[in-house]
Amino acid sequence: MSATSPNRRRNIIFLLPDQLRPDFLSTYGASFIDTPNIDSLAGEGVRYDRAYSASPICVPARTALLTGMNAVRNGVTDNLHRIRSDYAAAGIRTWPQLLSDAGYYTAAIGKMHFYPWDASHGFQHRVTCEDKVWLHVQDDYSHYLRQRGLRKLHGNEHEGYFENRGAITHAHPWEHSWDRFVGRAACNFIRNFGGDGPFAMMVGFPGPHNPYDPAADFPEKYDSEDMPGSVPEAVGDTPKLRQKQIDSLRGGWNGVDYTEFTEGHKKKMRAHYAALVKGIDYEVGQIVESLHVEALLDNTIIVFASDHADYLGDHNLAGKGSFFETCMRIPMIVRVPGLESATSHELVELRDVTATLLAFAGIDRPSNMDAKTLPGLPVSTDEPRDRIFGLLADGWMVYDGTWKLTKYRTGESVLFDLIDDPLEQTNLIADPSQAATLRRLDTELSIYLMNEMRLSMFDRLVDSGNMSQDPSFGREGWRREFPAPVQDVH
Q1: Which of these, 19, 380, 382, 425, could form a disulfide with 310 (CB 3.0-4.6 Å)?
Q2: Same domain for 101 and 197?
């Protein structure tokens, strides 16, 4: 491992709102909302307009970020999976651990979605404010509320929760809201520790994830009628997928039934979501201002992204969990002091942030990581991606920049030409004229999955050389270390 000298290293802040769509940011073209603080990050950096979450649900996306390994390699393809307990013994090193070892003071502020929720996973300093539906988690936000005679509230404790499909006005004032708590904690970290040496801080905002719960006294309100309409459902293509999602969202953590899902419902959700996005933009401004006050802004790199997006009614779906564009396409901005503003049209993935953070810190990337450095930056060293491979327990996907093939565990498959059909309305899976395209993509996806499956079994690797020529193997009682380190796989 190599690192630049401490007095030359820049601070790093990684901002990660939960479930944020790029088309709700004015820097990505939204006309119904103004997000000047987030937009300003692109003024000194690169905005990526084809950034994707390859595993678009919370825990798989975040674990891929943590490890720099895709969801099959790290074994986390579902929200109820967790990174293996012996990951360190298996040779997996998280990016916060690598930065901590290199002399950075690492901090995790807000929602991380770790299992267990109070794990450090390499972060030295934590201020916790976890998922909005984890009401029984005794995190720092829970203690903060309790000191003020308040408690975490489920969305269903608010008027209109079920009728408005999760869109409510929260009973707590804005000052005590989830994202306000996180933004304030991030600013406190900058004030208290920012001048002590290089730091790397990840800030996980719980919003704008559902429930869509802006406070009554939040100064920005949005009218449902001003919200953009939803992408229509391509009827008949994935009815089992939609029913599976309806069944999941009826569960106790959410409890909302989306069987009837009108355009009025969708626009109401979008108006409340927009207010949450505006609140996060305010917190981003506060964080940047804190850097300015502490004379740290010119020595701090800021990365802004999201773990996945939110359908908000597109394709008659809610939340996330499949591979349509409005679920897996995410915002991504990297601000580097002194860098000229630019827009990248290359395909990039969320976990490419991991390789980029390590590169900015001057740390060699471990060989087990399949993350790449983001293009257009001073630390960019990798060839751009020409494919995005989507990996979840319930589905697989390959996208080559034009064609997208998705296969779901429901048995449903879709093939879209995103150049001619950007809203994914015409499924060409059975079109004879696209048989060659289908075969090509299906072969690419199959080969990729076979290779990643092989790499995922590194811990059971018996030998990385030629054990037939090893005399010790021929004797009784030979044992192979378990887990085998991931670096042994080639």
Answers
A1: 19
A2: yes
Quote the CA–CA distance of 200 and 110 in Å, as a whole number: 14
Pairing of the two strands 329-330 and 51-52: antiparallel
Q: Do 412 and 368 fall into the same domain?
A: no
Q: The domain that contains 435 carries what CATH number?
A: 3.30.1120.10
**pLDDT tens figures, 129-138:** 999 999 999 9
Residue written as token pair 């406190």: 188
Does 458 score more than 70 pLDDT? yes
Residue that finishes a domain, picked among 343, 362, 387: 387
Cα separation of 226 and 217, whole Å? Answer: 20
At 52-104, the pLDDT tens digits run 999 999 999 999 999 999 999 999 999 999 999 999 999 999 999 999 999 99
Query: Does 325 share its domain with 396?
Result: no
Report the number of distinct structural domains present in the chain: 2
What CA–CA distance (Å, rounded) separates 72 from 81?
Answer: 11
Which amino acid belongs to residue 34? Answer: D
pTM of the model: 0.95
What is the spatial order of strands in the sheet that 332-335 belongs to? 125-128, 105-110, 199-208, 11-18, 300-305, 332-335, 45-48, 342-344
Q: pLDDT band at 1, cuts 50/70/90?
A: very low
pLDDT tier at 8 (50, 70, 90 boundaries)? low
The conformational region for residue 236 under phi > 0 = left, psi -120 to 50 = alpha, else beta, is: left
Is it the case that residue 490 has pLDDT exceeding 80? no
* Residue 181: alpha-carbon gap to chain centroid: 20
CA nearest neighbour of 194 among 299, 123, 285: 299
- The residue segments making up the domain with residue 436 are 392-488
Confirm whether 1 is domain-assigned: no
Which CATH number goes with the domain that contains 317? 3.40.720.10
Q: Is 362 left (phi over 0), alpha (psi -120 to 50) or beta?
A: left
Which helix (H) or strand (E) covers residue 443, if one does?
Answer: helix 435-456
Examine the domain organization and report whether 239 and 314 are in the same domain: yes
